[in-house]
Design goal:
Blueprint lengths: L7 E2 L5 E2 L2 H17 L6 H19 L8 H10 L4
Antiparallel strand pairs: 1-2
């Protein structure tokens, strides 16, 4: 199995992403949410964004860093609340 750009295989051979990569995924979901109407999946994209933000937050916790700036920026752009 080959690892994608910016990913590294874990002991089981699965590719893992960094918190920054999950932030990018959350931002993409927010962009899609802004482009859709409520009945066309708007809330689903927002839920996905919240999920990716939560995953990114969990990845940052063990390092003890307070790098919440990226999360706050995504939330501000998407007008989300957690």
């Amino acid at each position: 199995m080959s690892a994608g750009r910016g990913t590294s295989p874990d002991r089981a051979g699965h590719c893992t992403k960094t918190a920054a990569e999950y932030l990018v995924m959350a931002e993409q979901c927010c962009r899609w949410a802004r482009k859709t109407y409520p009945d066309e999946g708007h809330e689903i994209y927002l839920e996905l964004a919240r999920f990716w933000l939560a995953v990114a937050s969990r990845l940052d916790e063990p390092r003890g860093s307070e790098s919440k700036t990226g999360f706050k920026a995504v939330l501000a752009r998407a007008h989300l609340q957690t």
